[in-house]
Amino acid sequence: MTYEIPASVAWVAGSDFIDRDHNVYAMVLPDGEPVILEGTAAMAWLVIADGQPVVETMAELTATPPERVASDLSGFLADLADRGLLDVAEEAR
Amino acid sequence: MIKHGWSVVTRFETGSIFEHAASLWHTQLGYVDLHRRFPGVDLDAEAAFDVLWSERLERHIAHQPCPVPSTDGQRLILLLHAARGGGVRHPDAQLLWEGASADEQKRCRDLAARLDADLALAAASGRLDDFVGHPAEHLWRLLSANREPSRAEIFAARWRATPGLRARLHLLARVALLNTDHLSMRLGHAASRRDVLTAYAQRVPLFGREAGKAGRRLLARIRGRR
Q1: Whether B142 contacts B154, CB under 8 Å
Q2: CA-based, 20 to 30 A from A61: which of A25, B105, B130, B153?
Q3: Which pTM value belongs to this model?
Q4: InterPro entries in the record, alphabetically (chain A) (predicted)?
Q5: Nearest-CA distance from A22 to chain B in Å?
Q6: Residues of A with CB below 8 A from B28's CB?
Q7: A9 chain-B contacts, CB cut-off 8 A
Q8: CATH no. for residue A71?
């Protein structure tokens, strides 16, 4: 699976405004419910925003086996996709 | 905006003495001030908007493309805002006027001239003496002063700055009517008929006092002319 942030999503990284704010704030325009992503959720979002493969990169960053990361992240990523905050595409073979 | 979950807190007519902005509230996004004109810009609001729009830039805010005024436009708007909040002493005036190059100041003055905003810019840049005798000079002197002016002072200055009978009658009506939006904000709930009547009753002595002061000043001036 590959993940992308749709153009209709407005988001900011808290650290762009306040040094110690490591959260990400995101909402689908114009009427979506704003969400706050904390900790590893915020980190995963920034990885996706950077265009990196989220499972592999998070596995590397957290020194965790990719299978475990994929399992931990699957519910979270599916929830974001359900809320319209992420586009999901099957990886080309 | 109401369709998108915003509710009106103060209307244009009651937001400020300039009647320039409405405040709206969204339960998750907070407050926003929606402007229909900008205090200090005396050019017709639509014409002024066209001037700023014709020089707009695009900036990404929260990863969304947003049209914003040109850098000169942003400088001028912030300075006009500073002009009614302390004038030259306002931190924005210090940074954006005192800290600007001669070329940046000139471009800002040129834009102010196109928007008929020279007087308010003068209030932010300490040049109000260039506008002695202008009908609105006193108003901007008061707004840019380093103290909170009284309601009577503001009223007298607005009266002097307001041209024509119709506009002055409008001003009188606005001053006489209670600002129910602000009353609701102060109370923390929608003002009831009883709240409004109580506020009117409390206001009469205040008005009486301020009107008395203004009357005495007027009398002294008339006597002085004799």
Answers
A1: yes
A2: A25
A3: 0.77
A4: PQQD (IPR008792)
A5: 15
A6: 33-34
A7: 63
A8: 1.10.10
